[in-house]
Every structure is written in structure tokens, then in C-alpha cells.
Amino acid sequence: MKLLEYQAKREFARVGIRVPAGRLARTPEEAAEAARELGRVAVKAQVPIGGRGKAGGIAVVNSPEAARREAARILAMEIRGYPVRSVWCEAGLEIAHELYLGITLDRDRRRLALILSAAGGMEIEEVAAANPERIAKLWPDPFAGPQPFEVRRLAFSALAHAPELAEVRGRLVTALVPLAQTLHQLAVDLDAVTCEINPLVLTAAGELVAADGKLEVDENAEYRHPELAAELALDLEGEDGRTGEDPYEAEAKRRGLTYVHLPGGTIGCIGNGAGLVMNTLDLVQQMGGRPNNFLDIGGGAGAEKVRSSLAMVLSDPDVRGVFINIFGGITRGDEVARGIVQSRDELGISVPLVVRMTGTNEEEGRRILAEAGIVPGTSAPEAARKIVELVAGTR
Amino acid sequence: MAILIDGSTRVLVQGITGREGSFHTQQMQAYGTRVVAGVVPGRGGGEALGVPVFDTVAGAVAATGADTAFTIVPPAFAADAVMEAAAAGLRLGVCVTEGIPVLDMVRTTAFVDRTAMRLIGPNCPGVMTAGQSKIGFIPNHVGRSGRVGVVARSGTLTYEVIQGLSDAGHGETTAVGIGGDPVLGSTFLDILPLFAADAATEAVVLVGEIGGSDEERAAEWIRASGFDKPVVAFISGRTAPPGKRMGHAGAIISGTTGSAQGKIDALLAAGAWVADTIEDVVRMVGERLKP
Q1: Tens of pLDDT along B229-247?
Q2: What is the structure's pLDDT at A244?
Q3: Shortest alpha-carbon distance between residue B154 and chain A (Å)
Q4: Are B152 and B136 in contact (CB under 8 A)?
Q5: What whole-number distance in Å separates Cα of residue A73 and Cα of residue B9?
Q6: Beta strands B273-274 and B231-236: pairing type?
Q7: How much is the ipTM here?
Q8: What domains are there in chain B, each with its CATH number?
Q9: Mutation test of the interface with chain B: which of A80, A103, A107, A184, choosing the one with the most B Cβ atoms within 10 A?
């Protein structure tokens, strides 16, 4: 769950991290009001995706009238598929230097990593690739959090490659200690897997200000942050319910299905278990076909879930055949087979179906399929070859 | 011989009275697993599925000599349950729960590392030592005692590999499903040395998937340690687009890390064989086992 800029900044401000003065506007009039109050402002589109500046989603304006005009223009935009629902109107800063301070999950170390660099304002991955020595990292103990001495060591190491900051080094390090500790605590409290201030601006007056921020909350922890999830849903869906997401994936979410859309593919893929479905897609591609989706019906799925899954996959008119790959463990082959046959009849499915079924109750499942005229296979590669051939034949 | 569990492993079940917990405990009992206790806070003194139920793990250990925990509780309570098991001095914990917040696992793995417990999971299918004992979801009918060790991230592909090895007559020593989450108690790197030390294991099948760099680190270990048993690997997710979570929380290609090709290249460079299909996994194992 990626929060919008205004939400991230509000969370920063709530815990005492300085942010530029700003107002959220959902209408051109509100933007004009913000400009009257704040003076010269940047009007910034609130979308959960990068590259909005290049797309024309940010404008700097000098008057309320210009704010109204630019806000009207930006609010009518769609940036890489995401409709703009609101703009953040923000006062400018007197920038002396741009730094980077961020927290991200490090899978290999099984910890959060605290990352500091004097090279702020650009993607940290790019800095890491081009100038790895300009990045300093710390992996705080998850129970104790980052200690002052650890942050000082991190900061001195990061600033060693920034001679332009030599004069303010001592003061800067002193200010970074509580900031890093606060940011780490915020990440922990919000279950954030990314919590990033970039750029962290050192102003002409010597203050550290979070000029832009990225906050991503772990999906598994959404239940602990219902207010953020609800607010984000409102921001993204607006009144027309268009989320900017792939419409098929949005529909799958409504149906409670684990589905990933691969637009342009022609073969629908359904299976039980994430690894098995990934492998199903790989097999289809290996045999020369193009998978249209990933759909995991999970463990123990019954006939109803099979029906909903088939309807979901077939809702994309590009799908000209479906490959169903079932390894029965908790999932019972006969249940799935009944679901397939029922769905075909009720949904009037006319495209080719190939079912590979093995495991629990496989004989009964195969018998049900065979009686209904669907030929079941036991080998996944063979079944994949068959669906690719059948779909090629429907051209 | 085998690794992690065998017929003498004494298992306590955290969540034995839940719908899933009770179903899978019965499956385990049917397989021959020695389930000695259940733990459900507030239900201590009762009985479930023929074993005594305790309020705390420490209480269950004191009364029954349990040495291993099977944790099957809802995601909001799972991290705490795993830490309770580790604190009670158990040797092994297997947690199958899917959907645990990742920062809970960051704290939990740090906590477990300070104890003697080895954790498998979460979000994993569990462990099976064919013909002796199983903990978790692996279907009872697939395993057959034999010569090959299996370590895998995905559940269903674990079952497929076990079934394939069994049908081909090779059989398994122990199959370990390490799980599909980004932060895991044990990775390939933790399990491979156990297979290296197990005399009964003659070859190893490693089933990886996109996301993270556990497969690359395993490859590096295989190369550096001079691991001398044949390793046949299989990686799923070659068609996965970057940035999309493919079912498992951990199965996501982010930036340049985690792609299937990178993992395949690393494993090939380490001297492992990489198969394109599960059928090929079984065939390649057969070709490399001594007659």
C-alpha cells in the first residue's frame, strides 16, 4: 500500500519531522485559496506512481489565479493510467543541499536497513549503482532501534564523501541522530517496508526539511492501519470508482481472487498454489504460447471459487483458451472438476479448456471431466503443449 | 537417517483446536507423527484429538517433553506464538501461517536467533521425513522413503517434486518447504548444510522462485563449500513481470534483483543442474544417482 505524498508528509509532520508548508486541494478553488495563503507554491498531482513531473503533473505558480488554472489542468489529467484526484500545494524552500535518508526492508539481513547519503534528490538505486561509496547503511536491532552512536557512525561515513558539507558536518550529524531515530520509529509504527525522505533538504537557514517522501505500508499489516487504507481507497477511487489500476486486477480484488494480469496474452492460466501457477505460466511460454494472467485459487478451493475464477479469466476478450493446472493436496480434484463442468455449462464457455489434474481424488475428477467431454491430462508440459496448439488453431 | 524430524520427534501444536489446526493435526497423526500436546491459551487442562491441551508452551514442554512446535494460528498472533515456542527451549519450530506482517517476522527472527530453536517458515507447507513424520500440509500420500533431499519455497511444487521422486522410485529423505515470505526463519543456506551432513541424502532438489537473492546465496555456498552431492534446481517465475507480487509475498522482482534468469545463471555457475520442468527434475536426479 503506497501512500500519497500528502499522506506521507502528514505522517512525517505528526511525529515532528519538518515538512514544507502545504495544503491539499481537491478543486481549483481550493488550490487558489492555498496560494493566497502560502504565496508562491508548487501544485503537485497526487498519484501513487513516479514520473509525475515529467508528465506535466507539477507546476510552480506565483498567483492564486495561476494556481486555479494549473490545478484545473492537473486535476483533469491521468498520469500513467492514474486519474489525478487531488493536488498538494506547497511553499518553496531555500535549498542549500539535498541529502537522502530512508528505511527499507533488507530481505537478506532480515532487518530494516537505515540508509543515508549526501547525494539526495535522485533515485537511491542509481546512486548505489554509480557511487556506492556515497551510501552508508545501518541495520538497527529490531528491539532496541538505532542507537545514537550508530547513527553518528553512519552519518560520519556518509558525509566523508561530501566535502561541500565539511563546514556544517558536526551540526548536521547532531541533527540527523534524532531524525533517524524518529523515522525508524515511524516505519515500525506504520509497518512500513519503505519509509524514505528524498530529498532531505538542508535549508539556507540550516534546518533539515523533508521535501518529498515515500511511504509504503506492508500489505499483510493493512489490518493494523485501517484509517490509512480507507483514506487511500477514497483518494484513488474518487466518485467514479476508477482506480488507475489494471481494470481486470481491480475486478479480481473485488472478487477476492489472487490474480495478476499480463495484458496481450491469449491463454488464461489457473492453478492452486503460487509456485505451481508461476510454473504454469512458464510452461505455456515454453511451449510457444502467451499467458494472459496468473490466478491462484489457493488451497481447498471449491466449485464456487473455480466458477468465479473462470469467469474472471474469461472477462478479458483476448483469452482464447484456458489451462487449469491442479495438484490436489487439500484441494480435491472431484470438487474442482465439478466446478469446471458447471461453469462451462452455465457461463457458456466456448473456448478450449485443458485441465491437468493430479493428486487427491484425481480419478473421480478425471472421470467427471471426461464424461463432460473435457480431456484431462496428467503431465503439465503435455497439457501446456495442448492448450497452445488448440489456441493457435482458433486464429 | 534424515534431517530436522524423524519418528522420535515429539510435536506440540499451537492452535490445535482451530478449524485448520485440528484438520492438519489429524492428518499428521494419521501419517504417524508423534503429536504429544496442544497449546491454546485459556483451554489448559482440556483435551483435543487425544492429547492434553496446555495454556502455555512451557507448561506443555514440562509435562510432555515436546521438542518441536507446529504453529498454525492466525497471522495476528503467529509471531508471538513462535517467540513463545522459542523461549520455551524447543529445538524446532514449523510455522505455516500465511499473511504475517513482515516487521513482526523481522522481530521474531531476531528473537529466535538468540535461542536454540530453528524456525521453518512462515507461509510454508512444512517438513516431511518420508515414512516417519510430517509437520504441516504436505499430503500424506505423496512421500516415499528414499535417497533425495528436497528444499523448496513453494508448497504445491514441493508436492509435485515429492510425488515425482516417489513415482520414479528414488524416494526422499526429508522434504523441507521453507516458505514464500520475504523474511523467513530458514533459507536454502540454512538447510543445505544439513543435507550435506546427512549420510542418507545422496542428492538434493532445490525449488526456488523469483524474488530476493536466497537462490543466488545458496549457489554461492554450493560453490564455496565444495558440496559434493548432485543438486538439481528448478526456478519458477520466468514469465513474471517486474514489480508484481506473484501470489507469495516474497515472489516479486524489484529493480534488478530477484529475476529467474539471474538465479538460474548463478546455480549453473555453481555446478548445479537446472531443469525446465518438474518431469526433468526427476529425470535429472535419476541420471545422477548412483545405481
Answers
A1: 999 999 999 999 888 888 8
A2: 67
A3: 5
A4: no
A5: 68
A6: parallel
A7: 0.93
A8: 10-120 (3.40.50.720), 141-288 (3.40.50.261)
A9: A107
